[in-house]
Amino acid sequence: MTQIDKSFLPDTSLDHAVNLLREVPMAQENLPHSFPERGIGEIQTLDLLAPHVLGRAARLDNSNALTHMDPPTPWITWAMALWNARLNQNLLHPATAPFAIEAEKKVMDWLAPVFGMNGGHMCSGSTIANLTALWAARDVKGIEKIVASKAAHISIEKAAKILGLPYEQISTNSHGQIDSDKINDISNACLVLTAGTTATGVIDSLALTGKAKWTHVDAAWAGPLRLSPNHAHLLDGIDAADSVAISAHKWFFQPKDSALIMFRDTDLANSAISLGGGYLATPNIGVQGSRGASAIPLLATMIAWGKEGIADRIDHAMSMANMLATELIKEDNISLWAMPTTGITVFRPLTMNTEEFYQRLPEGMFSTCMLDNVKWLRSVAANPLADIEEITSKISEVIHGTIA
Ligand SMILES: *Cc1c(COP(=O)(O)O)cnc(C)c1O
């Protein structure tokens, strides 16, 4: 076969894939039952899959979507994801990814100082970012245990298990923060503080930063607040951390998989988490081996929007959460867990069962969480296109059993 295989070229049929994004066909045909013997070709595959892939996903940009930490993504990131897929650069091999490496360095140079860090690298999510930080803490400082609040993300417990370190969970105070009175000796510990707990969005007291042998701040959710002049103060104290994790696929509006692990002393951290190999030109830093150029969509977003554009969107999300909470306070039949601190509003009905209330609301509007064995509704302001008026009128419609 001397013909060039066109499946690997930028065929004009690719335009069809982009056009399908604008107008998703409704009619669904069944997928093949088994692995087809002969392929149906690219164009037919696009037409077959579009109603499934594009039509059968929860729309995170719906006006009533306020459910999870997964944001809708700006189209500039779709373009970059497509370019990335076309080149398939590997951050593991500098020779294949000269620009991708430069892009990641730029993203780090621009973002790390915002958190008092001096560098780091990207990875697939904060689960990996947290593991990487705790690995560095163990092997740089010889920490003997990991301490976090019981509201910390499960990835901290996972990391403790993987690293073979004891995990101490501290109860929370009345604000949902780690209860500092309950913290014992942490002179040989890594203290993990959460900036934006997953259930309620609470920020642990960052005044505790620097009190343990290593302090890691899990800012998976709330880290981007540091870029907003109006909200940066909520993360005051973070600069004294030894490491900071942020999921860029949460409040930086990035497509998955995109996260940052940053260190105060990156050379020192890297000395513990880098391994050479005969087949590698440079040592492999961190947990992952091959990894894609997730810095490129993030860099594009940072250049396209600027600091101001990112801050505006974060501020808008914060005000949406505030608006929602302010409306909920007015409802006698609803209990608000607390005013939201990082865009997460938690509440429950007082006149009906939470689950029943949840079931009556549109799918994809809220999620639920358990706090001290009580079920609450949870909303996360990750969707800049949410319509709070529409959402609050739906809530009052359900709570009063009438159209508001
Ligand atoms: C989401 C989250 C994580 C895990 O991040 P992934 O990107 O899902 O791996 C860790 N910690 C907190 C506080 C989170 O909200």
Q: Could you walk me through the main structural features you see in this protein, from its secondary elements to its overall organization?
A:
Helices cover 34% and strands 15% of the residues. Among the domains are: 14-53, no CATH class; 77-303, Aspartate Aminotransferase, domain 2. By secondary structure, it is α/β, with parallel strands linked by helices. Bound molecules: pyridoxal-5'-phosphate. Pyridoxal-5'-phosphate is lined by residues 69, 125-127, 153, 155, 194, 196-198, 218, 220-221, 247, 259.
Largest sheet: 7 strands, mixed
Calculate Rg over CA atoms.
23 Å
Average pLDDT for all residues: 95
- Unreliable runs: none
Topology overview:
Elements: H1 14-22, H2 42-53, H3 75-87, H4 98-111, E1 119-123, H5 126-141, E2 145-149, H6 154-163, E3 167-170, E4 189-194, E5 214-218, E6 243-247, E7 259-263, H7 266-273, E8 274-275, E9 284-285, H8 295-330, E10 334-336, E11 344-349, H9 354-360, E12 367-371, E13 374-380, H10 388-400
Parallel strand pairs: 2-3, 2-4, 4-5, 5-6
Antiparallel strand pairs: 1-7, 6-7, 8-9, 10-11, 11-13, 12-13
Helix pairs in contact: 1-2, 3-8, 4-8, 5-6, 5-7, 8-10
Bound molecules: pyridoxal-5'-phosphate.
Pyridoxal-5'-phosphate binds next to helix 5.
